[in-house]
Structure formats: structure tokens, C-alpha cells
Amino acid sequence: MAGGIGPDVIVGSLPNVSNYGIVGGVTAYSVGTTSCNVGDDLLLWQANNNRHPVIGQNVYRYHEGVMMQVGQSWLKHGFVALSGSLCDSCDGNGGSVLGVGCSDPYGSGLNGSQFGLGPRFQVNAFNGAYTYPFANPDGSSGNTIFKRAQCKVSDVVPSSNPGARYFVEGHYITADDALAGNGLNNASYREVTIAESTTMSILPGSSTQRELPAIQAWEDIDPNATVNQADVPNEGRFNVGTRVFDNGDGSWTYHYAIHNLNSDLSAGSFSVSVPSGVNVTGVGFHDVDYHSGEPFDGTDWSSSLSGEMLTWSTDLFSVNSDANAIRWGTMYNFWFTADTAPETTAGIIGLFKTDNVDSVSTDIPSPMGAAACVGDCDMSGTVDFADLVAILFEFGGGGIEIPTLECNADGVGGVNFNDLVAALFLFGPCQ
């Protein structure tokens, strides 16, 4: 395994999971993580300050061709490192450092210990900085699901999600790893199973997919899905997953997922090209819930179609600094149905907190423009009643404001009887 220059922590293994009870329709898990230092320098692991890793645990579901995040935990704070050799030969250092080549196991029980779990909102994942001692907005103790990786029972119970596959993810953040520029390989995923009782177990035969966030599983298991990256210059990374479904009835459903790996600037909007004349229905949005006192506003993003762009957005940072941005370690989904097939365009991620740049983009599939035809005055891709009304309104006129080529079928004078007959004969979708 090729490690980074300087300290470089990765998740070498996700060995086990722990299950907790159900409270108010929500269940909770914790995931064991064994870290490895694959760099060439010691990684700090100091218990009583902010020079130790924090560990996030996340749950994802692949169902009916779409990957979604369905759970997230607070952050386990590391306190001492051992000197294992899971990933490489260990130089023998441990305690307040993770030695070069060394590994350190944190079992699921330890990662689920509520006393050692701190909130996400105080952590800058790009530079690894965080407040210590960490805040406890709702106190240091609570019920059995408090601070752990919480999931709605309806999202994980098999009877409600037939055929679904599930994945867990571990993610380490720490300052010296980030300072060395090694923050892009800190998340790994593994497939798990979930029983009707919502009990989670490691899937027999599965293995930890090192240095890959769980969104990558979408592409790994589904040949019709694609995952690309959108990097913020001199800052963090977003992963963008896409899949398009041909519905077989002249419509296509477009699904997108944006995963924020480690951008502190976060995402506040997402825009997709929708050319004029394309009909859009079924616009949707899905996020993952914060809990246990995290201060973020969980209001769903709104959507609008304007200027040939379909845009989802949350409140501006200047209006609400706790708005429901896509913060590090979370993934949000967006979808809609359109009546044209896909082509490749740029998907635009608007940054929540702007710096020297206010957006980043990556290639995504989006609807191509509707094909106009004779009689399609409004260029909607269909000759319909609106076109007949337009032709009758302009009947006999010479200076029509609607597209002349489509409405004036015979090219003679203004719109006339021949044009009306042509529109009636071609009534329906453009061929």
C-alpha cells in the first residue's frame, strides 16, 4: 500500500458492529474501526487536547438502484494508540502517537461509548481543527441511541426495503494528517446485513474497502452508476454519484447524490441543466438527520426551475449559519423525471461558505434539449393544444413573435390554413 508523505491515517478495517435499542422509531449502531498510519511519520494521538483523531461512523442503503445515507453518529475521540500491524510492519511506537506502519483497533463497543462521543459541528474536516474539550449540547448522557449512528427503522427494516443492501463507513479526521495533505483517503466502507429486528451484522465474506468512502459502493456494485469528484481549489472534496433510469415510456428519472468528504466550506446548492421545453416532474430531495443536540437546521432544501437550470438550495450562510448545508461526512440526494434522454453537462455545487471560489462542478448526466418539429410553436417537443392556440392567434399575421420555422410550416407569408392542417396532422410528440 502506497502511503502519503508525513502522517497518513486510514481506516484499515471495519471489523464489527454493535446494536442498540429502538426509541421512537429510531434505532442505533456503532461500528468498529481499526486505523493504520500508512505515512512515513508519527501520527499524533494525544488524549487531553485537540491533537488526536476523531472518528465518524455512517450507514448507507442501496435500494432500487439508488444509494442514500440513512444514518450518522457523533464522533469518537481517540485517547491512546496501540502498535498493531494490520496494514504493514509497525515501528513499535504507540501511546500518544500511532507509529509508522502501525495499526490501532477501536472496537464497536468502544466507538459506541457515549461518554467519548463529541459533536460534528465543532470539527473542520479540511484542516483537522476542532474545539477540545468538546461540547455536549444535550448533556453527556442520554437514552440508548443518544449520539450513536442513528437510523430510522423504516430505512433499515428489510420488509420496508426489499432487496436493499447496506454499507457502513468509518472516517478519521485529525490535524497533522490534514496538514500533510493526506485527508482524501481517510474514509473506508464495508457491506453489512440487517435483520428484520434491525440487528446489523458484518456481511460474511465482505471486506473493508480501504480509502474509499461509501458512495463509491454505488459505482462498485451498479454498472449503471457513476461517481465523480469535484474538488474545491485549496480546500476539500465532494464526491458526486449519478444514475439515470429509462422508464420505458418516453421519460427518464435522474438521480444524483452529493457526498461531502472533507470540505468545511460545505455545499449550499446544487444545479442541473434543464433546457427550455423539457418537462420536469417528481422533483425530490433526501438528507440524513442530525441528532442528539447538533445545532444544524434540518429543513429540506427547496427547488426552483429558472433560466434553464433546476436548482435545489438551503438558506444562505449569511441568513442562517446553521442551515442544512451538506457538511463533511454527509451525503444528500436529488432527483427528478424529465421527458428527454440524458446528455453530459456540468452539475454545479454552490458553496455554502464562500472563499475565493463560490462553486465547483463536475460532469453529470442531465436532460438534452427537446427536439422541435413542424407545428411545435413553443418548442416543447410536442405538438399540442397550446401550439394550435398559438397558430390560431397568429393566423394570417406576418410578424409573428413565436418561432417562425416551426409555426409557418409552408414558409409562405404568415401563419395560414396550411400551417394549421400541418399542426393537426402532426399532433403529438415530435418524432
Please characterize this protein's 3D structure.
It is a single chain. The protein is mainly β and 431 residues long. The chain is built from 7 helices and 27 strands. Strands 2, 3, 6, 7, 8, 11, 12, 13, 14 and 15 form a 10-stranded antiparallel sheet that branches. A 5-stranded antiparallel sheet has the order 16-17-18-23-20. Strand 14 (187-194) and strand 15 (200-202) form a beta hairpin. It starts with 8 loop residues before the first strand and ends with a strand. The relative contact order is 0.13.
Uncertain residue segments: 398-405
Overall, the morphology is elongated
- The whole-angstrom Rg is 26 Å
How many DSSP helices?
A: 7
Q: Which key terms come to mind for this protein?
A:
27 strands, Immunoglobulin-like, 3 domains, 431 residues, 10-stranded antiparallel beta sheet, 7 helices
